[in-house]
Amino acid sequence: MVCDTLGLWMEVVVLPASVPERKGAEEVFWHMAGQEVCAALEVVWADGGFEGRQWQQEIEQKFGFCIEIVKRCDGMEGFEVLPMRWIVERSFGWMNYYRRLSKDYEGHTHIRRAWMLWAMADKMLHTLAPDW
Question: How far is it, in rounded angstroms, from Cα 54 to Cα 97?
């Protein structure tokens, strides 16, 4: 999943849990490739699981944006709010309000993705018109 700085999803791809993080990220970027939103991206913030200069350079060459890793400070214990990463976590938190997304009820990934997009559309509509 890629979201903007407001936490609104730009692209969602549902993959099996057996797919490594980096492969999953590349899959999402390929889905975004050629779209206007991808051309507008300059920086993508990611967690420490995506660290690796070679991989980051490959992504930059393929897609034209750079990956910045947001990591915890060395020696930090316990919970720490990290800049920019809390935005993604907040997006996942919003989805907890949707009962259908609380468990994996779907047998197919494309159906799961559709429900996730529906939930985000509902969230955006309620943000724009809360009394509606």
Answer: 39
In the chain, where the domains are located: 2-128
Integer CA distances (angstroms), 82 to 65, 117, 119, in order: 21, 26, 26
pLDDT (tens digit per residue) in 42-97: 899 888 888 889 999 999 999 989 898 887 777 767 777 777 778 888 888 888 88
Please state, as a whole number, how many other Cβ atoms lie within 10 Å of the Cβ of residue 54.
Answer: 7
Q: State the DSSP code for 66.
A: E
Task: Report the amino acid identity of residue 42.
Answer: E
DSSP β-bridge partners for residue 44: 67
**119 touches 93 (CB < 8 A):** no
Q: Is the dihedral of CA 81, 82, 84, 85 positive or negative?
A: negative
Q: Which residues, 6 or more positions from 82, have their beta carbon under 8 angstroms from its beta carbon?
A: 70, 71, 72
| Burial call 75-92: b when 16+ CB within 10 Å, e when fewer | eeeeeeebeebebbeebe
Instruction: Write down the pTM of the prediction.
Output: 0.79
